[in-house]
Write a structure and sequence with these properties.
Elements: E1 2-6, H1 13-22, E2 26-30, E3 55-58, E4 61-64, H2 66-76, H3 91-114, E5 126-128, E6 134-136
Parallel strand pairs: 1-2
Antiparallel strand pairs: 1-3, 3-4, 5-6
Helix pairs in contact: 1-2, 2-3
This protein binds glutathione.
Length: 146
């Protein structure tokens, strides 16, 4: 049976929805997490390497990071057809959307939400050095968000 490590009002709520949609039996294990306002604490019961949620445990398999969990669940439990099948025509868009969420959207959302400028992935540029390897070009600076 699946176990979802969950903290209320966090990203783990999305997997209550997904697991319910998949119609799977699961145990909901509520853990504490560190909150942005300084409250909360790491929970030793949480198997996430950084004490975050969501985490799903399926037997001996532990999965963390939302795109990985979504992919794992929709691949492992395909009966409801929520994830396009491997090799199917819709698979590329599905994988792209999941990766884009993690690599593109979430950092941008968090930058805005936390009011913390992050280096934008904008023409940072690379330069070949004597070793033939492309290294980041120190003359091209990251542009602060704003
Ligand atoms: N990229 C991760 C983010 C996980 C994450 O940051 N979760 C927050 C709750 S929404 C958390 O556990 N924060 C506690 C901490 O940072 O220690 C995902 O999408 O699963």
């Amino acid at each position: 049976m699946l176990t979802l490590f969950h903290a209320p009002k966090s990203r783990s709520s999305r997997f209550i929805w997904l697991i319910e949609e998949l119609g799977l039996p699961y145990a909901l294990r509520v853990v504490t997490i560190r909150r942005g306002d300084g409250s909360g604490a790491l929970d030793p019961a949480n198997p996430h390497p950084h004490g975050k949620v969501p985490v799903v445990v399926d037997g001996t398999t532990t999965i963390f990071e939302s795109p990985a969990i979504a992919l794992y669940l929709t691949d492992a439990f395909p009966a409801k057809g929520l994830g396009p099948k491997i090799g199917g025509p819709a698979r590329g868009a599905y994988l792209s959307g999941l990766a884009y969420y993690g690599d593109g959207m979430e950092p941008a959302f968090m930058s805005k939400f936390m009011n913390t400028p992050v280096a934008r992935n904008r023409r940072l540029g690379c330069r070949r050095r004597g070793d033939g390897v492309r290294h980041p070009d120190p003359d091209r600076q990251a542009v602060p968000a704003g």
